[in-house]
Protein backbone atom coordinates (compact mmCIF):
# COMPACT_ATOMS: atom_id res chain seq x y z
CA UNK A 1 0.00 0.00 0.00
CA UNK A 2 1.19 3.53 -0.72
CA UNK A 3 2.61 5.44 2.23
CA UNK A 4 0.00 7.84 3.62
CA UNK A 5 2.22 10.90 3.61
CA UNK A 6 2.72 10.66 -0.16
CA UNK A 7 -0.98 11.29 -0.75
CA UNK A 8 -1.41 14.67 0.94
CA UNK A 9 -2.95 15.51 4.31
CA UNK A 10 -3.38 12.34 6.37
CA UNK A 11 -6.55 11.61 8.33
CA UNK A 12 -6.84 10.71 12.01
CA UNK A 13 -5.50 7.19 11.46
CA UNK A 14 -1.97 8.53 11.01
CA UNK A 15 -1.37 8.38 14.78
CA UNK A 16 -2.39 4.73 15.09
CA UNK A 17 -0.01 1.75 15.41
CA UNK A 18 -2.06 -0.80 13.46
CA UNK A 19 -0.56 -1.49 10.01
CA UNK A 20 -4.13 -1.88 8.71
CA UNK A 21 -5.26 1.52 9.95
CA UNK A 22 -2.06 3.12 8.68
CA UNK A 23 -2.81 1.71 5.21
CA UNK A 24 -5.86 4.00 5.21
CA UNK A 25 -4.28 7.05 6.82
CA UNK A 26 -3.82 8.72 3.40
CA UNK A 27 -7.35 8.08 2.14
CA UNK A 28 -9.51 11.12 1.30
CA UNK A 29 -12.09 9.57 3.65
CA UNK A 30 -12.10 11.32 7.04
CA UNK A 31 -11.57 8.08 8.93
CA UNK A 32 -11.75 7.90 12.71
CA UNK A 33 -10.30 5.08 14.78
CA UNK A 34 -12.83 3.31 17.00
CA UNK A 35 -13.41 5.49 20.05
CA UNK A 36 -15.60 7.94 21.90
CA UNK A 37 -14.60 10.89 19.69
CA UNK A 38 -16.20 9.32 16.61
CA UNK A 39 -19.44 8.34 18.36
CA UNK A 40 -19.80 11.74 20.01
CA UNK A 41 -19.30 13.50 16.68
CA UNK A 42 -21.96 11.28 15.07
CA UNK A 43 -24.39 12.31 17.82
CA UNK A 44 -23.55 16.02 17.53
CA UNK A 45 -23.84 16.04 13.74
CA UNK A 46 -26.83 13.66 13.72
CA UNK A 47 -25.17 11.27 11.26
CA UNK A 48 -25.13 7.49 10.92
CA UNK A 49 -21.79 5.70 11.22
CA UNK A 50 -20.14 3.64 8.50
CA UNK A 51 -18.02 1.01 10.25
CA UNK A 52 -15.36 -0.76 8.16
CA UNK A 53 -13.55 -3.72 9.72
CA UNK A 54 -10.62 -5.61 8.17
CA UNK A 55 -6.97 -6.51 8.61
CA UNK A 56 -3.67 -5.61 7.01
CA UNK A 57 -3.12 -8.75 4.92
CA UNK A 58 -6.71 -9.06 3.61
CA UNK A 59 -6.82 -9.13 -0.21
CA UNK A 60 -10.44 -7.98 -0.60
CA UNK A 61 -9.83 -5.21 1.94
CA UNK A 62 -7.15 -3.92 -0.44
CA UNK A 63 -9.54 -4.19 -3.40
CA UNK A 64 -12.27 -2.16 -1.68
CA UNK A 65 -9.68 0.36 -0.52
CA UNK A 66 -8.44 0.91 -4.09
CA UNK A 67 -11.92 1.02 -5.61
CA UNK A 68 -13.74 3.05 -2.98
CA UNK A 69 -11.76 4.44 -0.05
CA UNK A 70 -9.10 6.02 -2.28
CA UNK A 71 -11.82 7.41 -4.57
CA UNK A 72 -12.81 11.08 -4.31
CA UNK A 73 -16.49 10.49 -5.17
CA UNK A 74 -16.90 7.86 -2.44
CA UNK A 75 -14.97 10.02 0.02
CA UNK A 76 -17.27 13.00 -0.62
CA UNK A 77 -20.34 10.88 0.14
CA UNK A 78 -18.85 9.34 3.27
CA UNK A 79 -17.54 12.63 4.58
CA UNK A 80 -20.80 14.51 3.92
CA UNK A 81 -23.36 12.01 5.19
CA UNK A 82 -21.50 9.70 7.62
CA UNK A 83 -18.91 9.39 10.33
CA UNK A 84 -16.50 6.74 9.04
CA UNK A 85 -14.70 4.42 11.48
CA UNK A 86 -11.90 1.96 10.67
CA UNK A 87 -11.22 -1.06 12.90
CA UNK A 88 -8.39 -3.59 12.78
CA UNK A 89 -10.18 -6.84 13.62
CA UNK A 90 -6.98 -8.33 15.03
CA UNK A 91 -6.54 -5.48 17.51
CA UNK A 92 -10.23 -5.31 18.40
CA UNK A 93 -11.68 -8.81 17.99
CA UNK A 94 -14.44 -7.88 20.43
CA UNK A 95 -15.84 -5.29 18.00
CA UNK A 96 -15.36 -7.64 15.04
CA UNK A 97 -17.13 -10.58 16.67
CA UNK A 98 -20.27 -8.63 17.49
CA UNK A 99 -20.67 -7.00 14.09
CA UNK A 100 -19.64 -10.12 12.18
CA UNK A 101 -22.45 -11.96 13.95
CA UNK A 102 -24.78 -9.18 12.81
CA UNK A 103 -23.62 -9.55 9.20
CA UNK A 104 -24.00 -13.33 9.25
CA UNK A 105 -27.46 -13.06 10.80
CA UNK A 106 -28.70 -10.46 8.31
CA UNK A 107 -27.08 -11.75 5.12
CA UNK A 108 -26.31 -15.43 5.73
CA UNK A 109 -22.58 -14.93 5.18
CA UNK A 110 -19.62 -12.99 6.52
CA UNK A 111 -16.07 -12.03 5.67
CA UNK A 112 -13.74 -9.09 5.36
CA UNK A 113 -13.84 -6.26 4.69
CA UNK A 114 -16.85 -6.11 6.96
CA UNK A 115 -19.09 -3.14 6.13
CA UNK A 116 -21.64 -2.17 8.77
CA UNK A 117 -23.94 0.84 9.09
CA UNK A 118 -24.83 1.72 12.68
CA UNK A 119 -26.58 4.48 14.61
CA UNK A 120 -24.56 6.96 16.69
CA UNK A 121 -25.24 4.58 19.60
CA UNK A 122 -23.51 1.74 17.75
CA UNK A 123 -26.70 -0.17 16.94
CA UNK A 124 -26.47 -1.87 13.51
CA UNK A 125 -29.13 -1.64 10.81
CA UNK A 126 -27.40 -2.66 7.53
CA UNK A 127 -24.52 -5.05 6.90
CA UNK A 128 -22.39 -6.53 4.15
CA UNK A 129 -18.82 -7.37 3.26
CA UNK A 130 -17.05 -6.26 0.08
CA UNK A 131 -19.02 -3.92 -2.16
CA UNK A 132 -17.72 -2.79 -5.57
CA UNK A 133 -17.84 0.97 -6.11
CA UNK A 134 -20.53 0.60 -8.79
CA UNK A 135 -23.12 -2.16 -9.18
CA UNK A 136 -21.92 -5.18 -11.14
CA UNK A 137 -22.70 -8.88 -11.55
CA UNK A 138 -25.70 -8.62 -9.26
CA UNK A 139 -23.71 -6.93 -6.48
CA UNK A 140 -25.03 -3.57 -5.25
CA UNK A 141 -22.62 -0.69 -5.70
CA UNK A 142 -21.16 1.06 -2.65
CA UNK A 143 -22.01 4.50 -4.06
CA UNK A 144 -25.67 3.53 -4.49
CA UNK A 145 -25.79 2.08 -0.96
CA UNK A 146 -24.30 5.26 0.54
CA UNK A 147 -26.86 7.43 -1.26
CA UNK A 148 -29.85 5.23 -0.39
CA UNK A 149 -28.99 4.97 3.30
CA UNK A 150 -28.35 8.73 3.51
CA UNK A 151 -31.80 9.31 1.97
CA UNK A 152 -33.43 6.90 4.42
CA UNK A 153 -31.66 8.51 7.38
CA UNK A 154 -33.15 11.85 6.27
CA UNK A 155 -36.62 10.73 5.16
CA UNK A 156 -37.43 7.45 6.90
CA UNK A 157 -35.33 7.35 10.02
CA UNK A 158 -38.04 5.68 12.03
CA UNK A 159 -37.71 2.44 10.09
CA UNK A 160 -33.91 2.52 10.45
CA UNK A 161 -34.12 3.00 14.22
CA UNK A 162 -36.75 0.28 14.50
CA UNK A 163 -34.53 -2.09 12.56
CA UNK A 164 -31.47 -1.23 14.66
CA UNK A 165 -33.38 -1.91 17.90
CA UNK A 166 -34.58 -5.26 16.57
CA UNK A 167 -31.11 -6.34 15.47
CA UNK A 168 -29.51 -5.22 18.73
CA UNK A 169 -32.16 -6.98 20.78
CA UNK A 170 -31.63 -10.18 18.83
CA UNK A 171 -27.86 -10.25 19.36
CA UNK A 172 -28.26 -9.45 23.05
CA UNK A 173 -30.71 -12.31 23.45
CA UNK A 174 -28.36 -14.68 21.62
CA UNK A 175 -25.61 -13.89 24.13
CA UNK A 176 -27.62 -15.63 26.86
CA UNK A 177 -26.99 -19.35 26.89
CA UNK A 178 -29.58 -22.09 27.09
CA UNK A 179 -29.55 -23.21 30.72
CA UNK A 180 -31.38 -26.50 30.14
CA UNK A 181 -29.37 -29.64 30.87
CA UNK A 182 -27.84 -31.53 27.95
CA UNK A 183 -25.51 -34.49 28.11
CA UNK A 184 -22.06 -34.42 26.57
CA UNK A 185 -20.46 -37.85 26.41
CA UNK A 186 -18.27 -40.16 24.36
CA UNK A 187 -21.26 -40.48 22.04
CA UNK A 188 -20.91 -36.74 21.29
CA UNK A 189 -17.33 -37.36 20.17
CA UNK A 190 -18.45 -40.28 18.06
CA UNK A 191 -21.05 -38.13 16.32
CA UNK A 192 -18.41 -35.46 15.71
CA UNK A 193 -16.31 -38.07 13.95
CA UNK A 194 -19.32 -39.20 11.89
CA UNK A 195 -20.13 -35.62 10.85
CA UNK A 196 -16.55 -35.00 9.75
CA UNK A 197 -16.44 -38.25 7.81
CA UNK A 198 -19.62 -37.27 5.92
CA UNK A 199 -18.05 -33.99 4.78
CA UNK A 200 -14.63 -35.52 4.04
CA UNK A 201 -13.36 -35.26 0.45
CA UNK A 202 -11.95 -38.75 -0.31
CA UNK A 203 -10.30 -37.56 -3.53
CA UNK A 204 -8.51 -34.40 -2.41
CA UNK A 205 -8.59 -34.60 1.37
CA UNK A 206 -10.03 -31.92 3.60
CA UNK A 207 -13.65 -31.27 4.50
CA UNK A 208 -16.38 -29.78 2.37
CA UNK A 209 -16.09 -28.18 -1.05
CA UNK A 210 -14.29 -25.06 -2.23
CA UNK A 211 -13.13 -22.81 -0.70
CA UNK A 212 -11.24 -25.27 1.47
CA UNK A 213 -9.69 -24.34 4.81
CA UNK A 214 -7.01 -26.30 6.68
CA UNK A 215 -9.04 -26.50 9.98
CA UNK A 216 -6.18 -28.25 11.84
CA UNK A 217 -8.24 -28.69 15.02
CA UNK A 218 -10.48 -31.07 13.04
CA UNK A 219 -7.38 -33.14 12.34
CA UNK A 220 -6.09 -33.12 15.92
CA UNK A 221 -9.58 -34.14 17.11
CA UNK A 222 -9.60 -37.04 14.63
CA UNK A 223 -6.16 -38.17 15.78
CA UNK A 224 -7.50 -38.38 19.32
CA UNK A 225 -10.61 -40.21 18.20
CA UNK A 226 -8.38 -42.68 16.35
CA UNK A 227 -6.37 -43.31 19.52
CA UNK A 228 -9.57 -43.77 21.52
CA UNK A 229 -11.40 -45.97 19.00
CA UNK A 230 -8.61 -47.55 16.88
CA UNK A 231 -10.69 -46.49 13.86
CA UNK A 232 -8.32 -46.76 10.90
CA UNK A 233 -10.60 -44.79 8.55
CA UNK A 234 -10.29 -41.78 10.86
CA UNK A 235 -6.51 -41.90 10.59
CA UNK A 236 -6.80 -42.28 6.82
CA UNK A 237 -8.76 -39.00 6.64
CA UNK A 238 -6.04 -37.19 8.59
CA UNK A 239 -3.16 -38.60 6.54
CA UNK A 240 -4.88 -37.95 3.21
CA UNK A 241 -5.57 -34.34 4.18
CA UNK A 242 -2.11 -33.59 5.55
CA UNK A 243 -0.40 -35.13 2.50
CA UNK A 244 -2.64 -33.28 0.03
CA UNK A 245 -2.11 -29.92 1.72
CA UNK A 246 1.68 -30.33 1.77
CA UNK A 247 1.74 -31.16 -1.96
CA UNK A 248 -0.67 -28.36 -2.89
CA UNK A 249 -0.22 -24.71 -3.73
CA UNK A 250 -1.62 -23.84 -0.30
CA UNK A 251 1.88 -24.72 0.92
CA UNK A 252 4.71 -22.40 -0.10
CA UNK A 253 6.89 -24.96 -1.87
CA UNK A 254 9.83 -22.55 -2.14
CA UNK A 255 9.89 -20.75 1.21
CA UNK A 256 7.71 -23.02 3.40
CA UNK A 257 4.72 -22.12 5.54
CA UNK A 258 1.01 -22.41 4.72
CA UNK A 259 -1.17 -19.85 3.00
CA UNK A 260 -4.56 -19.00 4.48
CA UNK A 261 -6.87 -21.28 2.47
CA UNK A 262 -7.47 -22.75 -0.97
CA UNK A 263 -10.05 -21.21 -3.31
CA UNK A 264 -10.46 -24.59 -5.05
CA UNK A 265 -11.08 -28.10 -3.76
CA UNK A 266 -7.63 -29.37 -4.87
CA UNK A 267 -5.55 -27.18 -2.52
CA UNK A 268 -3.96 -25.67 -5.66
CA UNK A 269 -4.80 -21.94 -5.73
CA UNK A 270 -4.61 -20.27 -2.33
CA UNK A 271 -5.43 -16.90 -0.97
CA UNK A 272 -1.78 -16.15 -0.47
CA UNK A 273 -1.71 -14.42 2.90
CA UNK A 274 0.13 -16.30 5.64
CA UNK A 275 -1.20 -16.09 9.20
CA UNK A 276 0.80 -16.91 12.33
CA UNK A 277 -2.06 -18.86 13.88
CA UNK A 278 -2.32 -21.18 10.87
CA UNK A 279 1.39 -21.97 11.15
CA UNK A 280 1.02 -22.76 14.86
CA UNK A 281 -2.06 -24.96 14.59
CA UNK A 282 -0.82 -26.80 11.48
CA UNK A 283 2.60 -27.38 13.04
CA UNK A 284 0.83 -29.05 15.96
CA UNK A 285 -1.30 -31.17 13.61
CA UNK A 286 1.73 -32.43 11.64
CA UNK A 287 3.72 -33.00 14.85
CA UNK A 288 0.92 -35.08 16.34
CA UNK A 289 0.46 -37.00 13.08
CA UNK A 290 4.13 -37.94 13.32
CA UNK A 291 3.63 -39.02 16.94
CA UNK A 292 0.70 -41.24 15.97
CA UNK A 293 2.09 -42.73 12.75
CA UNK A 294 5.86 -42.50 13.14
CA UNK A 295 6.02 -41.29 9.50
CA UNK A 296 8.97 -38.96 9.02
CA UNK A 297 7.22 -37.03 6.24
CA UNK A 298 4.90 -35.45 8.79
CA UNK A 299 7.80 -34.50 11.05
CA UNK A 300 9.49 -32.88 8.07
CA UNK A 301 6.49 -30.62 7.39
CA UNK A 302 6.31 -29.51 11.02
CA UNK A 303 10.00 -28.60 10.87
CA UNK A 304 9.46 -26.72 7.60
CA UNK A 305 6.74 -24.63 9.25
CA UNK A 306 9.05 -23.87 12.16
CA UNK A 307 11.82 -22.93 9.71
CA UNK A 308 9.52 -20.40 8.07
CA UNK A 309 8.33 -18.91 11.37
CA UNK A 310 11.78 -18.63 12.94
CA UNK A 311 13.24 -17.16 9.77
CA UNK A 312 10.51 -14.76 8.62
CA UNK A 313 8.00 -14.21 11.42
CA UNK A 314 10.18 -13.69 14.52
CA UNK A 315 10.80 -10.21 15.89
CA UNK A 316 14.27 -9.25 17.19
CA UNK A 317 12.69 -9.10 20.66
CA UNK A 318 11.76 -12.78 20.39
CA UNK A 319 7.99 -12.68 19.90
CA UNK A 320 6.21 -13.49 16.65
CA UNK A 321 4.72 -11.25 13.98
CA UNK A 322 1.10 -11.65 12.92
CA UNK A 323 0.93 -12.19 9.16
CA UNK A 324 2.25 -11.67 5.66
CA UNK A 325 0.14 -10.16 2.90
CA UNK A 326 -1.23 -11.90 -0.19
CA UNK A 327 -0.40 -8.96 -2.44
CA UNK A 328 2.80 -7.38 -3.71
CA UNK A 329 3.20 -4.75 -6.41
CA UNK A 330 -0.59 -4.48 -6.38
CA UNK A 331 -1.18 -8.10 -7.44
CA UNK A 332 -2.25 -11.08 -5.40
CA UNK A 333 0.29 -13.91 -5.27
CA UNK A 334 2.86 -12.24 -7.55
CA UNK A 335 5.67 -12.83 -5.06
CA UNK A 336 5.03 -16.59 -5.06
CA UNK A 337 4.42 -17.56 -8.71
CA UNK A 338 6.78 -18.54 -11.54
CA UNK A 339 7.15 -19.05 -15.28
CA UNK A 340 9.41 -21.75 -16.79
CA UNK A 341 11.61 -19.00 -18.23
CA UNK A 342 12.18 -17.42 -14.79
CA UNK A 343 13.15 -20.80 -13.34
CA UNK A 344 15.50 -21.82 -16.17
CA UNK A 345 17.21 -18.44 -16.33
CA UNK A 346 18.21 -18.84 -12.70
CA UNK A 347 19.13 -22.51 -12.38
CA UNK A 348 19.82 -23.60 -15.97
CA UNK A 349 17.80 -25.42 -18.59
CA UNK A 350 18.36 -29.02 -17.47
CA UNK A 351 17.76 -28.55 -13.75
CA UNK A 352 15.07 -25.95 -14.50
CA UNK A 353 13.20 -28.37 -16.73
CA UNK A 354 13.32 -31.06 -14.04
CA UNK A 355 12.12 -28.62 -11.39
CA UNK A 356 9.30 -27.32 -13.58
CA UNK A 357 8.12 -30.83 -14.41
CA UNK A 358 8.03 -31.88 -10.77
CA UNK A 359 6.36 -28.70 -9.51
CA UNK A 360 4.05 -28.32 -12.56
CA UNK A 361 5.38 -24.94 -13.68
CA UNK A 362 4.22 -24.76 -17.30
CA UNK A 363 4.07 -22.35 -20.24
CA UNK A 364 0.27 -22.20 -19.97
CA UNK A 365 0.40 -21.65 -16.21
CA UNK A 366 -2.15 -22.55 -13.57
CA UNK A 367 -2.66 -19.01 -12.25
CA UNK A 368 -3.10 -15.50 -13.63
CA UNK A 369 -1.13 -14.13 -16.60
CA UNK A 370 0.36 -17.50 -17.50
CA UNK A 371 2.19 -17.89 -14.20
CA UNK A 372 2.31 -21.06 -12.14
CA UNK A 373 1.86 -21.88 -8.48
CA UNK A 374 4.42 -24.53 -7.59
CA UNK A 375 2.81 -27.75 -6.36
CA UNK A 376 3.41 -31.49 -6.49
CA UNK A 377 1.16 -33.44 -8.82
CA UNK A 378 2.67 -36.70 -7.55
CA UNK A 379 4.91 -37.88 -4.76
CA UNK A 380 8.69 -37.65 -5.00
CA UNK A 381 8.88 -41.44 -5.07
CA UNK A 382 6.42 -41.75 -7.98
CA UNK A 383 8.23 -39.01 -9.91
CA UNK A 384 11.61 -40.71 -9.37
CA UNK A 385 10.21 -44.00 -10.66
CA UNK A 386 8.75 -42.28 -13.72
CA UNK A 387 12.08 -40.57 -14.45
CA UNK A 388 14.18 -43.64 -13.62
CA UNK A 389 16.14 -41.62 -11.04
CA UNK A 390 17.53 -42.57 -7.65
CA UNK A 391 15.13 -41.20 -5.02
CA UNK A 392 17.78 -39.69 -2.73
CA UNK A 393 19.61 -38.09 -5.66
CA UNK A 394 16.37 -36.58 -6.98
CA UNK A 395 15.54 -35.25 -3.53
CA UNK A 396 18.98 -33.61 -3.20
CA UNK A 397 18.84 -32.07 -6.68
CA UNK A 398 15.38 -30.60 -6.16
CA UNK A 399 16.35 -29.29 -2.73
CA UNK A 400 19.37 -27.52 -4.24
CA UNK A 401 17.13 -25.98 -6.91
CA UNK A 402 14.61 -24.88 -4.28
CA UNK A 403 17.37 -23.21 -2.24
CA UNK A 404 18.64 -21.32 -5.26
CA UNK A 405 15.16 -20.17 -6.28
CA UNK A 406 14.46 -19.07 -2.72
CA UNK A 407 17.54 -16.81 -2.94
CA UNK A 408 16.21 -15.45 -6.24
CA UNK A 409 12.79 -14.81 -4.73
CA UNK A 410 14.29 -12.86 -1.84
CA UNK A 411 15.21 -10.15 -4.37
CA UNK A 412 11.56 -9.67 -5.40
CA UNK A 413 9.32 -7.01 -3.89
CA UNK A 414 8.07 -8.65 -0.70
CA UNK A 415 4.47 -8.60 0.49
CA UNK A 416 3.70 -6.44 3.51
CA UNK A 417 4.56 -8.03 6.84
CA UNK A 418 2.05 -7.19 9.56
CA UNK A 419 4.61 -6.82 12.33
CA UNK A 420 2.28 -6.28 15.26
CA UNK A 421 2.59 -8.82 18.06
CA UNK A 422 -0.63 -10.35 19.39
CA UNK A 423 -0.66 -12.11 22.76
CA UNK A 424 -3.13 -14.82 21.75
CA UNK A 425 -1.43 -15.81 18.50
CA UNK A 426 1.94 -15.82 20.26
CA UNK A 427 0.44 -18.19 22.82
CA UNK A 428 -0.45 -20.61 20.02
CA UNK A 429 3.03 -20.42 18.48
CA UNK A 430 4.65 -20.93 21.88
CA UNK A 431 2.51 -24.04 22.37
CA UNK A 432 3.47 -25.36 18.92
CA UNK A 433 7.19 -24.80 19.40
CA UNK A 434 7.12 -26.30 22.89
CA UNK A 435 5.34 -29.37 21.52
CA UNK A 436 7.89 -29.47 18.70
CA UNK A 437 10.72 -29.51 21.23
CA UNK A 438 9.01 -32.29 23.19
CA UNK A 439 8.80 -34.46 20.05
CA UNK A 440 11.89 -33.51 18.02
CA UNK A 441 14.29 -32.53 20.85
CA UNK A 442 15.57 -29.58 18.84
CA UNK A 443 16.75 -26.97 21.38
CA UNK A 444 16.10 -24.03 19.06
CA UNK A 445 12.38 -24.69 19.34
CA UNK A 446 12.42 -24.48 23.14
CA UNK A 447 14.69 -21.43 22.99
CA UNK A 448 12.33 -19.63 20.59
CA UNK A 449 9.30 -20.43 22.75
CA UNK A 450 11.09 -19.24 25.90
CA UNK A 451 12.17 -15.97 24.29
CA UNK A 452 8.61 -15.31 23.12
CA UNK A 453 7.19 -16.01 26.59
CA UNK A 454 9.74 -13.71 28.18
CA UNK A 455 8.76 -10.89 25.83
CA UNK A 456 5.00 -11.33 26.21
CA UNK A 457 5.11 -11.53 30.00
CA UNK A 458 7.22 -8.37 30.15
CA UNK A 459 6.08 -6.32 27.15
CA UNK A 460 2.38 -7.20 27.06
CA UNK A 461 1.44 -7.02 30.72
CA UNK A 462 0.62 -4.03 32.90
CA UNK A 463 2.28 -3.35 36.24
CA UNK A 464 -0.87 -4.77 37.83
CA UNK A 465 -0.54 -8.03 35.92
CA UNK A 466 -3.30 -7.50 33.31
CA UNK A 467 -2.42 -8.95 29.92
CA UNK A 468 -2.57 -6.59 26.94
CA UNK A 469 -3.64 -7.51 23.44
CA UNK A 470 -1.20 -5.88 21.00
CA UNK A 471 2.39 -4.62 20.85
CA UNK A 472 3.94 -2.63 18.02
CA UNK A 473 6.85 -0.18 17.89
CA UNK A 474 7.16 0.10 21.64
CA UNK A 475 3.44 0.55 22.23
CA UNK A 476 1.33 -2.07 24.04
CA UNK A 477 -2.41 -1.50 24.03
CA UNK A 478 -5.92 -2.86 24.65
CA UNK A 479 -6.76 -4.99 27.70
CA UNK A 480 -6.44 -8.65 26.74
CA UNK A 481 -9.45 -10.73 25.73
CA UNK A 482 -10.33 -14.31 26.65
CA UNK A 483 -8.24 -15.73 23.79
CA UNK A 484 -5.15 -13.84 24.96
CA UNK A 485 -5.36 -15.48 28.38
CA UNK A 486 -6.47 -18.96 27.30
CA UNK A 487 -3.97 -19.33 24.44
CA UNK A 488 -1.03 -18.01 26.48
CA UNK A 489 -1.86 -20.38 29.35
CA UNK A 490 -1.89 -23.21 26.79
CA UNK A 491 1.56 -22.17 25.60
CA UNK A 492 2.87 -21.96 29.17
CA UNK A 493 1.56 -25.45 30.01
CA UNK A 494 3.23 -26.92 26.92
CA UNK A 495 6.46 -25.08 27.71
CA UNK A 496 6.43 -26.36 31.29
CA UNK A 497 5.96 -29.93 30.03
CA UNK A 498 8.81 -29.38 27.54
CA UNK A 499 11.35 -27.87 29.95
CA UNK A 500 10.02 -28.68 33.45
CA UNK A 501 10.89 -25.14 34.52
CA UNK A 502 8.40 -24.58 37.29
CA UNK A 503 8.15 -20.82 36.66
CA UNK A 504 6.12 -21.55 33.52
CA UNK A 505 3.64 -23.62 35.49
CA UNK A 506 3.41 -20.89 38.11
CA UNK A 507 2.69 -18.26 35.43
CA UNK A 508 0.06 -20.54 33.88
CA UNK A 509 -1.67 -20.94 37.24
CA UNK A 510 -1.58 -17.18 37.89
CA UNK A 511 -2.93 -16.22 34.49
CA UNK A 512 -5.58 -18.96 34.56
CA UNK A 513 -6.83 -17.67 37.91
CA UNK A 514 -6.91 -14.10 36.57
CA UNK A 515 -8.77 -15.28 33.46
CA UNK A 516 -11.52 -16.85 35.58
CA UNK A 517 -11.82 -13.68 37.65
CA UNK A 518 -12.01 -11.41 34.59
CA UNK A 519 -14.17 -13.40 32.18
CA UNK A 520 -16.24 -16.02 34.05
CA UNK A 521 -20.03 -15.71 33.77
CA UNK A 522 -21.21 -16.07 37.34
CA UNK A 523 -24.86 -16.35 36.25
CA UNK A 524 -24.61 -18.86 33.43
CA UNK A 525 -21.10 -20.40 33.65
CA UNK A 526 -18.57 -20.34 30.84
CA UNK A 527 -16.30 -17.49 29.84
CA UNK A 528 -17.22 -14.28 28.05
CA UNK A 529 -14.88 -13.01 25.32
CA UNK A 530 -14.70 -9.64 27.12
CA UNK A 531 -14.55 -8.96 30.83
CA UNK A 532 -13.33 -6.57 33.50
CA UNK A 533 -11.31 -3.78 31.92
CA UNK A 534 -12.61 -4.31 28.37
CA UNK A 535 -14.78 -1.67 26.72
CA UNK A 536 -18.53 -2.31 27.17
CA UNK A 537 -20.15 -2.83 23.77
CA UNK A 538 -23.77 -3.33 22.66
CA UNK A 539 -23.53 -7.06 23.49
CA UNK A 540 -21.11 -9.58 25.04
CA UNK A 541 -20.24 -12.73 23.16
CA UNK A 542 -19.62 -16.11 24.73
CA UNK A 543 -18.39 -18.64 22.18
CA UNK A 544 -17.65 -22.34 21.83
CA UNK A 545 -17.45 -22.46 18.02
CA UNK A 546 -14.01 -23.44 16.71
CA UNK A 547 -13.52 -21.55 13.44
CA UNK A 548 -10.16 -20.52 11.98
CA UNK A 549 -9.05 -20.36 15.60
CA UNK A 550 -10.24 -22.62 18.42
CA UNK A 551 -12.58 -20.80 20.78
CA UNK A 552 -11.25 -19.39 24.02
CA UNK A 553 -13.73 -21.53 25.94
CA UNK A 554 -12.60 -24.81 24.37
CA UNK A 555 -8.93 -24.03 25.03
CA UNK A 556 -9.76 -22.90 28.57
CA UNK A 557 -11.62 -26.15 29.27
CA UNK A 558 -8.55 -28.17 28.27
CA UNK A 559 -6.31 -25.88 30.33
CA UNK A 560 -8.55 -26.39 33.38
CA UNK A 561 -8.28 -30.16 33.07
CA UNK A 562 -4.52 -30.16 32.56
CA UNK A 563 -3.83 -27.73 35.41
CA UNK A 564 -6.18 -29.73 37.64
CA UNK A 565 -4.07 -32.85 37.05
CA UNK A 566 -0.74 -31.03 37.33
CA UNK A 567 -1.65 -29.28 40.61
CA UNK A 568 -4.19 -31.71 42.15
CA UNK A 569 -6.76 -28.91 42.12
CA UNK A 570 -10.19 -30.57 42.07
CA UNK A 571 -11.92 -27.18 41.79
CA UNK A 572 -10.49 -26.69 38.30
CA UNK A 573 -11.87 -30.04 37.20
CA UNK A 574 -15.29 -28.96 38.46
CA UNK A 575 -14.89 -25.65 36.64
CA UNK A 576 -14.16 -27.54 33.41
CA UNK A 577 -17.37 -29.52 33.93
CA UNK A 578 -19.35 -26.29 34.50
CA UNK A 579 -17.86 -24.75 31.36
CA UNK A 580 -18.71 -27.83 29.30
CA UNK A 581 -22.27 -27.86 30.62
CA UNK A 582 -22.71 -24.16 29.75
CA UNK A 583 -22.25 -25.03 26.08
CA UNK A 584 -23.64 -28.55 26.14
CA UNK A 585 -26.59 -27.80 23.88
CA UNK A 586 -24.46 -26.32 21.09
CA UNK A 587 -21.88 -29.10 21.39
CA UNK A 588 -24.51 -31.83 21.40
CA UNK A 589 -26.32 -30.29 18.41
CA UNK A 590 -23.20 -29.71 16.28
CA UNK A 591 -20.19 -31.58 17.68
CA UNK A 592 -18.18 -31.10 14.46
CA UNK A 593 -18.17 -27.33 15.05
In short:
The protein is an alpha+beta fold and 593 residues long. It has helices at 19-23, 36-45, 59-69, 72-81, 93-107, 142-155, 157-174, 186-199, 216-229, 232-247, 276-293, 296-312, 340-347, 349-359, 380-387, 391-409, 423-440, 443-459, 482-499, 502-519, 552-567, 570-582, 584-589, and strands spanning 31-33, 49-54, 83-88, 114-118, 124-128, 261-262, 270-271, 274-275, 323-324, 327-328, 331-332, 417-418, 421-422, 468-472, 475-479.
Largest sheet: 5 strands, mixed
Unreliable residue stretches: 1-7
Give the proportion of residues in helices.
40-55%
Rounded average pLDDT: 94
> How big is the Rg?
25 Å
- The fraction of residues in strands falls at 5-15%
CATH class of the largest domain: Mainly Alpha
Give the neighbour order of strands across the main sheet.
1-3-2-4-5
- Tell me, briefly, the overall form: globular
**β-strand number:** 15
Q: Give the name of the CATH architecture of the largest domain.
A: Alpha/alpha barrel
Amino acid sequence: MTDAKQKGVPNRLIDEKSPYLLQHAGNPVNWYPWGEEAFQKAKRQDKPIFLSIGYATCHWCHVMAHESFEDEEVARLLNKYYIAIKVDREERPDVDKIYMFVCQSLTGHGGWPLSIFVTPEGKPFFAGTYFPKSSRMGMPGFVDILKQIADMWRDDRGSILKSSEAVTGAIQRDAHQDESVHAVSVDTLKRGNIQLSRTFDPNQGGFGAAPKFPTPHHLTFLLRWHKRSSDSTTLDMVEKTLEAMRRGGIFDQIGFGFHRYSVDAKWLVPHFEKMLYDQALLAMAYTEAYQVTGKVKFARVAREIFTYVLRDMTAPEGAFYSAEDADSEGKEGLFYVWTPREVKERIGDELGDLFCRFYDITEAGNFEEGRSIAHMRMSLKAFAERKGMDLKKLEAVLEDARDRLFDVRKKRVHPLKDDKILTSWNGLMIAALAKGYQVFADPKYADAAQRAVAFVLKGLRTAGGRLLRRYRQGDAAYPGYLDDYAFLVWGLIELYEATFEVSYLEEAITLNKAMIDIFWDKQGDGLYFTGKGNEPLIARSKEIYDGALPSGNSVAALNFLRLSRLTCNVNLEQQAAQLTQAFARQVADQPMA
